[in-house]
């Protein structure tokens, strides 16, 4: 398969272009997998390269969910409104590059002389990387190519997303069994690992929770012959995976205030973070072409982007009215003044001709500014880590799982909801909210807590709220449209090359 050969070439390039602080694979006269993996150092180098692929692809999973992230403004055409004249295609090669990179080193671990616990640690990281990547792939494309542990070069047909989810769930469970807790992890030299960019048991539990919740919640859009599974068991597994993270209060805890979500949790290396990619400080990788590793790029301008002026808020891709912010975060909820810059003064003391009535998002605070050439003084990117899972997400996901399970779980769901609210001094749960619909209340809390973090589209799909929370063509889309793949990206034509077994998503095929 030509695409897979290209992936392997990219993998090798990633190894040999690694940062100076990463270990290197030392090839002989020509690079072969056999001579590339002869020591523990070589395995570590390969894992660092795999992590680097995730880190460098900073738009990992962001672009496709733009249509579901909260905004008071959307363009009139495109995926955001399910406009049939617009086919949203996207290449998946960079995602499969992660899987290929992980697969290459896996067969050699058992042949290297090192302690069994080290072998388990490295295998656990590989299983995590693959499970994490398949979670992204099935949420973005649905049915996709399933590559397991072997490096293959032949044509491969797509598998149902439910089957891929089962494989990824199994990988996540293996990762949980093999990976240590974060405080027990050591690096190649025996030093304690300081950063949560290295997969841990907690990170693997986060992936398992999201995979199980996705398969359980999305049963309604699986193919009819793929719906013969028990979603209750999946919700129970997801709930337990969340619990296994939450109970480790010595490792993970909420930051102390809404302000600290912005100044600590989203900066990186925080007690609230479960898994992140190290972007902060990697100045040689932060260039203009790498923008949009977080949603702040789409929402935020002045004052973080010093070269902009307040009036440019009216030109942002996504915009939220100040009045919407007040409705979303009523009363004493401190998130309105943490997530948005000087909400009162910008709304009441600055002319609406300048602001357009919009609030000024301020969730990401630290900018990297160019120091030379044409970029001198210009915003390049946010100099903060890319956060994949934080504890507030897991607490609210457990709350959702508990509402799905009902019965004795319901009280725990309310406790989880209130724990997140209490941190930001928001009003605690009242049974009258949203007509007494606790699951929808939790969905709206995730919308608020994770605002501008890219989770809302997946939450909408998982809960079956498309006709409530989306707009345009989504309001009239049929159940069959969802089964056919309306939620997913079309497979890029570039990914058809060299694979005669490739088929397009059914929904988008009808519109080509």
Outline the secondary-structure elements.
Blueprint: H1 2-16, H2 33-36, H3 40-56, E1 89-90, H4 93-105, H5 116-140, E2 144-145, E3 158-159, H6 161-178, H7 201-217, H8 231-246, H9 258-265, E4 273-277, H10 296-299, H11 322-328, H12 335-339, H13 343-348, H14 352-355, E5 367-369, E6 379-382, E7 386-390, H15 391-405, H16 410-423, H17 438-449, H18 456-463, H19 466-469, H20 479-484, E8 490-491, H21 506-509
Parallel strand pairs: 1-8
Antiparallel strand pairs: 2-3, 4-7, 5-6
Folded structure, characterized:
With 512 residues, the protein is mainly alpha-helical. It has a domain at 288-384. The chain has helices spanning 2-16, 33-36, 40-56, 93-105, 116-140, 161-178, 201-217, 231-246, 258-265, 296-299, 322-328, 335-339, 343-348, 352-355, 391-405, 410-423, 438-449, 456-463, 466-469, 479-484, 506-509; strands at residues 89-90, 144-145, 158-159, 273-277, 367-369, 379-382, 386-390, 490-491. Strands 1-8 form a two-stranded parallel sheet. A two-stranded antiparallel sheet has the order 2-3. A two-stranded antiparallel ribbon has the order 4-7. The longest helix is centred in the first third of the chain and has 25 residues, at 116-140. The chain starts with a helix and ends with a helix. Mean pLDDT is 88; it is low at 1-6 and 12-31.
């Amino acid at each position: 398969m030509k695409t897979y050969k290209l992936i392997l070439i990219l993998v090798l390039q990633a190894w040999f272009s690694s940062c100076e602080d990463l270990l290197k694979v030392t090839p002989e006269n020509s690079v072969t997998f056999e001579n590339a993996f002869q020591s523990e150092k070589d395995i570590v180098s390969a894992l660092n390269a795999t992590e680097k692929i995730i880190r460098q692809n900073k738009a990992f999973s962001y672009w496709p969910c733009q249509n579901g992230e909260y905004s008071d403004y959307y363009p009139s055409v495109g995926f955001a409104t399910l406009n049939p004249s617009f086919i949203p295609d996207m290449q998946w090669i960079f995602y499969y590059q992660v899987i290929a990179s992980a697969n290459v080193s896996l067969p050699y671990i058992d042949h290297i002389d090192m302690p069994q616990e080290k072998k388990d640690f490295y295998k656990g990281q590989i299983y995590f990387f693959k499970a994490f990547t398949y979670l992204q792939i099935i949420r973005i494309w649905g049915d996709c190519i399933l590559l397991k542990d072997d490096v293959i070069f032949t044509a491969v047909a797509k598998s149902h997303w439910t089957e891929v989810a089962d494989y990824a769930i199994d990988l996540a469970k293996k990762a949980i069994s093999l990976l240590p807790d974060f405080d027990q992890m050591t690096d190649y030299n025996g030093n304690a690992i300081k950063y949560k960019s290295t997969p841990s048991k907690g990170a693997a539990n986060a992936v398992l929770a999201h995979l199980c919740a996705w398969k359980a919640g999305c049963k309604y859009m699986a193919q009819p012959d793929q719906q013969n599974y028990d979603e209750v068991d999946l919700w129970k597994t997801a709930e337990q995976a969340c619990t296994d993270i939450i109970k480790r209060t010595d490792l993970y805890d909420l930051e102390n205030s809404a302000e600290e979500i912005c100044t600590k949790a989203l900066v990186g290396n925080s007690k609230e973070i479960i898994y992140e990619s190290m972007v902060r400080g990697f100045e040689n990788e932060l260039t203009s072409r790498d923008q949009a590793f977080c949603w702040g790029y789409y929402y935020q301008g002045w004052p973080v982007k010093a070269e902009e002026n307040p009036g440019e808020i009216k030109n942002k891709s996504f915009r939220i009215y100040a009045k919407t912010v007040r409705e979303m975060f009523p009363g004493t909820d401190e998130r309105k003044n943490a997530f948005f810059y000087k909400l009162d003064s910008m709304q009441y003391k600055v002319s609406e001709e300048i602001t357009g009535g919009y609030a000024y998002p301020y969730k990401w605070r630290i900018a990297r500014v160019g120091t030379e050439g044409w970029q001198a003084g210009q915003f390049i990117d946010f100099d903060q880590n890319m956060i994949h899972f934080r504890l507030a997400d897991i607490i609210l996901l457990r709350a959702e799982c508990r509402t799905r399970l009902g019965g004795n779980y319901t009280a725990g769901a309310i406790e989880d909801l209130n724990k997140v609210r209490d941190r930001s001094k928001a009003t605690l749960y009242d049974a009258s909210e949203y007509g007494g619909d606790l699951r929808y209340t939790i969905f709206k809390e995730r919308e608020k807590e994770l605002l501008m973090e890219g989770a809302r589209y997946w939450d909408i799909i998982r809960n079956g709220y498309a006709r409530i929370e989306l707009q345009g063509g989504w309001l009239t889309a049929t159940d069959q449209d969802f089964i056919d793949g309306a939620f997913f990206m079309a497979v890029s034509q570039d990914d058809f090359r060299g694979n005669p077994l490739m088929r397009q998503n059914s929904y988008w095929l009808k519109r080509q």
